[in-house]
Amino acid sequence: MTATTDRQISVDAPFFLRGEVVEGTESTAGTAGTAGTDSAEGSAETHGSRELGVRFRTPRLELDRLVTPRTEVPPLLDVPVTEIIDFLVETGRKIADPANTIMQECIERMASTHVLPAEMLFRQARYAADYLDRKLLTTLVERNFPDPRALDEWVPQRDHTGRKSFVRAFGPRLVHVLPGNSPGVAVKSIAEGALVKAVNLFKMPSSDPFTTVAILRTMAEIDPEHPIVRSMSAVYWRGGDASVEQALYRPQYFDKIVAWGGGPAIDNVIKYLGPGFQLVSFDPKTSISMVGREAFASPETLALTADRTSSDVMMLNQEACVSSRFIYLEGTQEEADRFSAALHTRIVERAADSGDRRRLDADLREQIDTLSMLEDDFRVWGRTDGTGVVIRSDEPVDFHPSNKTANVVRVDSLDDAVRYVNVATQTVGFYPFDRMADYRDRLASGGAQRIVHLGEAGPSTIGNPHDAMYPLHRFVHWMAHEDGVE
């Protein structure tokens, strides 16, 4: 299945098209076919993963097969949400089953293209299966829709003037541009696409062109004719490929594009938006921590606070949006140095436990090495070899800390930290907990979307807003049937 030549690994990444697994059999030159043309069945294209440059093979795109005519109603339209949840729960059990060779093979392939180590990817896949839980999915629907019946039927309404109408949360046609940092997003996106009864096209990322197809193949093994299976397609093309995106990103084919990713990915999508084709964006976010001077009440409190901070920094080894990158610490420079040293120790320990040995990229190494020479304004703990780095400063560094790198920013008061919060601030891990209520309004005004106990950036309350919105409510196509006045 794979052939290894140093970094030139060639791994097969099949497509999934509404129940059919499509394999590429031989490499071909050229680009994807355009809408209205056919490409050779079984031909393959070779791509490179973004971070590692590892090569993988996919089938050649046949764009006509990615589009469902609008004359066809969504396959899930008349399937009750309760039955959709039943199928998702069964899928979750199959994903978590150690005997599931599809998922095992998926993680083995992904380990060659992904920056995270294989053991961590296996753990993330198991955690992702937990999302397909009956209570969780039911709560998600109930929190997103004031009247969940709208997903299953035309709900009667009457206004104060006596006008009658019916409202339906109609299944949309969605393109999902998935991120590559976690298998969990693939599970979440498939589940949410099913719950809103959408016709879904998943554009897989180059670092993980495997997980989405593996989940859908698992579904097909349960029931190849299930309407969920017939509502899902997953393929890969290089982001920004105009020959594909100009053909697909059109309102006659899709209602909305659900995009995850960095700035360039979102900017690329925006140029295709227009009447009838909308964006639901989980765009680039930076999460932070705010730590009050109460952290220095005792050596034990300092150790606990540093440990909680390291937990937030090291979410997916700092690959997640919720991973803390800037820690605003209330205290003196001497206290900030003590905290930074304790934080560095815990980051190094967590990095070692994860098995992640990635060095920082060259630009980041150069930035940090430069700061280490400016001892009057900065202090650096650790090396740029991927074992963990902490930078203490009086202003946030002007680069994006990543790959186990944390910037401790000393402030006289947490009030001073609020000015650094903006619309790109997703999660704020806060300590002490009894001061959170004093800051939540100001954080929201600054643009932040979530405040949590320090150390709890990862788990979230089921059904809460994500990135300042209720996503499922935005996914659907809201349709009104006006029925006059009685």
Automatic annotation (TrEMBL):
CDD domains: ALDH_Acyl-CoA-Red_LuxC (cd07080). InterPro entries: Ald_DH/histidinol_DH, CoA_reduct_LuxC. Residues 24-43 have a biased composition (Low complexity). Its EC number is 1.2.1.50. It is an enzyme of class 1 (oxidoreductase). Residues 24-53 are annotated as: Disordered. Belongs to the LuxC family. It catalyses: a long-chain fatty aldehyde + NADP(+) + CoA = a long-chain fatty acyl-CoA + NADPH + H(+). This is Acyl-CoA reductase. It comes from the Bacteria. Keywords: NADP, Oxidoreductase.
